Structures are given as C-alpha cells and as structure tokens.
TrEMBL record:
PANTHER family: D-TAGATOSE-1,6-BISPHOSPHATE ALDOLASE, D-TAGATOSE-1,6-BISPHOSPHATE ALDOLASE SUBUNIT GATY-RELATED. Gene3D superfamilies: Aldolase class I. Pfam families: F_bP_aldolase. This is Fructose-1,6-bisphosphate aldolase. SUPFAM superfamilies: Aldolase. It catalyses: beta-D-fructose 1,6-bisphosphate = D-glyceraldehyde 3-phosphate + dihydroxyacetone phosphate. It comes from the Bacteria. Its cofactor is Zn(2+). Keywords: Glycolysis, Lyase, Metal-binding, Zinc. The active site is at D83 (proton donor).
Length: 347
C-alpha cells in the first residue's frame, strides 16, 4: 500500500468517531515498534518526524524506512507527517522527501521560539496549504501557543516552543479566531492550545480543568464541527514508566501528563490526531536502563534495543486501543497522494 495523505485517515476517523495517535520517530526501532503494534491491533498509522528527527536520521534513511514499512505491511494505511514545520521551505522539503502530510506551525516564527501574530500565521499556513494540496499532501496548522497554564510559561523542552512568558490568552486557542483561521487557510486539521506542553513535565499534579482546558476543545468543536482537531503534548507520562526509569538509576522528578480519559473526552469532541512522543521515549529508556542495571556484562545493542522496541510497542498498542483506532486498518481504502490531488481540487 502506498503512503497515504493524512486527510484520508482523519476523515475516516471522524466518520467513525475515533482518534488516531501520531507517534514521533527518529530511528528504525521506533518505526518497527509502531508497525508491530498496528499489525497486532489492525490500526491505521500516523508516523511523524520533527525537524530534529529529520536532522538526526537524515531524510533518505527516514524515507526508505517508511517505504519499507509500507512494503512489509501492505494492509495498513500509513501517513508520514512533518511535525512542527517552521516554514514553507521545511514543509516543501518534507514533501520532496516522501512525506504525505505536513504541519505548518505558524503559531511561532521561523526560529521556532518567538510567538507569531495571527496575520503571519495565516500567511505562511495558507501558502503551505495551497502548495501542499496541489501535491495531494495534507496540512495541519496551529493556533495558540503550547505552554503551561500552571506556570504561564512557554515550553522548549524539545528545542521547539515559545521561550518567553505567555499570557492565558496566548496559551488558549480562541474559538472565534479558530473559525476564521480554518476558513482563511484551508487546513485539513487544526492543532489547538489548551494547556498541554511537550515533554515529561506538563503538570505538577493530576491536572484539573483549570490547567487542562478540555472545555476549549468542546467550544472550538461547536464552531468547527467539520474540522479535525489535534492535541499536541498528549503523552500521559504514566507513573509506572517514571518508576521503572527511577528504579534503574534514572532521576526523573515526579510529574503528571495528560490522562488518557481526558484525551478520550477530546475524541468525543472532534479530536482526531493525538501527538505522543514522550511516553515512547520513556518506555525505551526504562527498558534500556533495566538491561544495563540487571546485566551490566552485556554489550550487544540488540540485547537492549529489543526490549526497548517491545516496551514502545506496548505503549503504542495501549494508545491505539484507547483512542479507538484499533480494528480499522483493513477497512480503509488506500489512496496515494497523486490520486488525492483531485480530492483537493474539488474542495
Ligand atoms: O506533541 C508532540 C509532538 O508534536 C509530543 O508530545 P509529548 O511530548 O507529550 O509526547
Ligand atoms: O515536538 C515535539 C516532539 O516531541 C518532537 O521532539 P524533537 O523536536 O525533540 O524531535
Ligand atoms: Zn507549536
Ligand atoms: Zn507538538
């Protein structure tokens, strides 16, 4: 099966009331973990690579790893998505390297850290949508800045995110603006700011509605019932993964993520893509630490990469099941991006 445009999967998810996890990857083992989880649960797949991931793994490796996944799993529709593109150039270079979906994150300027104004965001996002749709490629935009409603701080744990203090207004997507933004840019999906942030340190206690504004999702969904919403920073940071890391020599401070039940509420209100990276990173790190601690005499990378891959696979299976994407892969008719241009030409 060819890699498919993201819109194909998001539309199917909306028609059937489920959400799709979008997992970040940087290497072969992470791609394998996702594909094994998808095969076991019959799940369609969104794989995404950040700019950092592309730099780390190099586009040619990534592209061919994704083509290998498509070849090995002909019954699973797979999207390859650029996470947090910082400019139209970044998005186009992703498309040139086989990505079937791109995020133009115009909530921040090209430096990936200065909050941008609404007009700049519309301009760059619209430019990307116009170009990408002609190539059959889907586009995600972002309105509002990710960051903590607990501290009022932006976040930069992954090198991408606002560095300055942000107001509550900047940290919450405005429903009026969202409506205008989607109409003006033509995006396929909209990432919203509701108090989630990237990385492990999202909340200092189990989040309430004060700091995790799920009601915003409801309001935005009411205004935009046909727009696919995206939740970033949606790792749940499970206690058991923190415990494994710390048991085997790690030093993570106690922290709280986005509870799976809250994500499920979001999925009832239009959330179709849920970004998860940190949970997989933690699963991998915990598994590797365990091997190192228990069998320090080992030095074959396979001895720790296999359990690492397995631990990530279990996280992927859990999220695919919880978000409702399990069971759907073989029910989706694949369409390649070159065939999808006519879909975009018609909308
Ligand atoms: O939003 C993300 C990637 O864009 C990942 O979020 P987490 O850090 O919560 O996994
Ligand atoms: O955007 C956040 C993702 O977790 C990717 O992180 P990264 O930029 O460190 O690859
Ligand atoms: Zn962003
Ligand atoms: Zn993100």
């Amino acid at each position: 099966m060819p890699l498919v445009p993201m819109r194909l999967l998001l539309d199917h998810a909306a028609e059937n009331d489920y959400g799709l996890a979008a997992f970040n990857v940087n290497n072969m083992e992470q791609i394998q973990a996702i594909m094994e989880a998808a095969e076991e649960t019959n799940s369609p797949v969104i794989v995404q690579a950040s700019r950092g991931a592309r730099k780390y793994s190099q586009d040619a490796y990534l592209k061919h790893l994704m083509l290998a996944a498509a070849e090995l799993y002909p019954n699973i529709p797979i999207v390859m998505h650029q996470d947090h593109g910082n400019s139209p150039d970044t998005c186009q270079s992703a498309i040139d390297n086989g990505f079937t979906s791109v995020m133009m994150d115009g909530s921040l300027k090209e430096d990936g850290s200065t909050p941008a104004d609404y007009d700049y965001n519309v301009k760059v996002t619209k430019e990307v949508t116009e170009a990408a749709h002609k190539q059959g490629v889907s586009v995600e935009g972002e309105l509002g800045c990710l960051g903590s409603l607990e501290t009022g701080g932006g976040e930069q744990e992954d090198g991408h995110g606002a560095t300055e203090a942000l107001s509550r207004d900047q940290l919450l997507t405005d429903p009026d603006e969202a409506e205008r933004f989607v109409a003006e840019t033509g995006v396929d999906a909209l990432a919203v700011a509701i108090g989630t942030s990237h990385g492990a340190y999202k909340f200092t206690k189990k989040p309430t509605g004060e700091v995790l504004a799920m009601d915003r999702i409801e309001e935005i969904h009411k205004r935009l019932p046909n727009c696919h919403l995206v939740m970033h920073g949606s790792s749940s940071v499970p206690q058991e993964l923190q415990d494994i890391i710390n048991k085997y020599g790690g030093a993570m401070k106690q922290t709280y993520g986005v509870p799976v039940e809250e994500i499920q509420k979001g999925i009832k209100h239009g959330v179709r893509k849920v970004n998860v990276d940190t949970d997989n990173r933690m699963a991998i790190t915990g598994a590797i630490r365990k091997v190192f601690a228990e069998t320090p005499e080992k030095f074959d990378p396979r001895d720790y990469l296999k359990p690492a891959r397995e631990a990530m696979k279990q996280v992927c299976i859990a999220r695919m099941t919880a978000f409702g994407q399990a069971g759907w892969a073989d029910k989706i008719k694949p369409v390649s991006i070159d065939k999808f241009t006519s879909f975009y030409a018609a909308v």
